[in-house]
Write the structure tokens for this entry.
Amino acid sequence: MNMKTENIILVVDDEDIVLDSCRRVLEADGFEVMLASSAEEALEIMERRLPVALLMDIKMPERDGIYLMGQIREKWREIPVIVMTGYPTTETIAEAARMGAATFISKPFTPDELVETVRRVLKKVIQPVFSSYG
Amino acid sequence: MGVVSLFVGGQLLYKSVLSEAQIRVSLDLNAAREIYQARIKLVNVSLNITTLGFGFVSAIKQRDIQELQHRLGRMSVHAELDFAGIVTGNGKVLCRIGPDPMPDKRHQPVNPIAELAIKRQAPIAGTVILSEDFLFSENSELANLARVQFLPTPTADPIKEIEGASGMALAAAIPVFDQSEFIGVLYGGILLNRSKCIVDRVRDTVFLNQTYKGRTFGVASIFLSDLRISTNAITQDGKRAIGTRVSKEVEERVLIGGDTWTQRAFVVRDWYITAYEPITDIYGNKVGMLGLGIMEEKYLDIRRKALSVFILITAAGTVLAFGLGSLLAHRIMVPVRRLIEASQQVSEGHFNPEIGPISIGEIGVLQKTFKDMVAALGRRRAESENQLLHSEKQASVGRLAAGVAHEINNPLTGVLTFTHMLLRRNDINDEMRSDLETIANATERVRKIVKGLLDFSRQTSLDREPAEVNRLVKSAVSLMENQALVKGIRIVFEPGQDIPMLTLDRSQMQGALLNIILNALDATQPGEEIRISTNFISSVIDMDQKGVEIAITDTGSGIQPDHLDQLFDPFFTTKEVGQGTGLGLAVSLGIVERHGGTIRVQSEVGKGSTFCIWLPLDEHED
């Protein structure tokens, strides 16, 4: 892992407003933020620079989220993934957990909720919460 | 069907009756022959006895005519002989019965049977044909008796003669010996021409002298060649039908061919079932016939009677079948047809079909069952329509909610984020801050509404499987822990001991739990805690019913007593505008109730609330 990438968060979402919101909040809190609007773009970026954590929408079109999750689990196991969802059914959450997400955050969220979640993941305050599920 | 069986039955009847008659007439013919033969034997025996009589041989030797005639006369009376006599060894007639006992020696034709006995020097018995000459010389009365006028017979072989003068006789001749010296022949016999002795005996013994419709049922005839010389068939003028002749066909088949012949034939004036057999004379020639007939009319009448009974039965059967058929049609087919029509109506969607009056018996049961079935079908359909409507509604709400959630939550994220970012700035005045807070609150409210809609749309049927309640609660707590910690609230789980496995829809039950925990989270202030425990406990409603209780206790604001009743109503909320939509608890209760469980709430304003989810041990249908 590149030591210089400590503070970088990669946000992946197909909606610009979400990307902008996350950048605005996280940058205000001192993070460096990279944005990708598709799974392919995210993987391209990660080939160049590795983030410390990844925020991603699980319900991107064409099952992009699931695909991206699989790729990351395969190549960069240690990078924690926070799943964002605007449709938090138990099924989608369970699926994310099975894929190895660190935690999830429901859209819409307040800046405080977002920052708090990211910080906990990075501090490893939050253990993978789904270990006991299904 | 009736016509066919009538035809077949009639044919069978016709054949069986006539063949029965033919069998009978053949058997009767056998009996008649026995009578004929017995008569010959009687003649033979009578003659034999006479020859063996004491003094007979010496009377011949001594030419004691008076004695011989006396003996001949006695024999003839007993044996009913028409002629009898004694011939010497050289063929001369010694003496005889009749008007001329001592014939003139010069022209004296010898009885042919006596002649044969002399020739063979052995006893002879059988049928013999006597010529007109012989008859004349023997006894002119006999000759007159033998003369038979031919009566016109259309079917007979046409011949020139108009009368027959020969005689046919049953006769015997016994040679008489003195020691071994042949001294003569005793002969005797019965002339069959116009004789009643055979035919009437046959009639009396074989046919028991039966009459049918005033006429003789059975007739017997003896033929000399094809000429009827002895009979009890009666002509129209009441005389015996002597002089008629058999048909050419019979003559050919029996007299010439030598067969026994059985056929229906027109005899004198009626149709008869007849049988004929040839009569063979002492030389082995077929010289005549023995014939029997039984009236066909009797059998025809039997057949007619049987046939009319048969027709009557068939007709009655047909009428009965039609009657029963129409009765059945009325009693069964009519209601059944109405049921069929009703079924069609039902299949077209009319659930109140007219099936007519209820019959008695099984058809009635069928009608009632049909009615019940249709009613049940109607109810079921209404239910399923409601259910369908409901699930369609739910599905469309679900789709709508999912779409709304997906589409709205993204822009809402932006709205929330930027509102909060603006609120963080120090360079805004109070009015701007207040406006921004209004935006933030309104957005929060939209978020809750969308979440409630999502929860509500997810009420689906249960997919049960065995589950550990403690593990289920633990995973729900884990899912909520992050949110709780963000709010600064601790969730404490105290799992109970020996909690049995329950059969649950894990996903839905988890959703119900999450909703209640979320509710508790909303009611709880930062720094406080939510306690969750599980217990194996009886139902508060029914102490015999064991189950598992999940208690979620918060130290929050509590619930107003007058709000407790409405707590689980959809869209009921005590929260400030923007704090909640109230869908969550209604959804949770729905899930728990579909598992056969209950949710109890204990609450004290200012101290907090306890939500007790109780789930039964036994499986309950949803």
In short: The helical segments of chain A are 16-28, 39-48, 64-75, 90-99, 111-123.
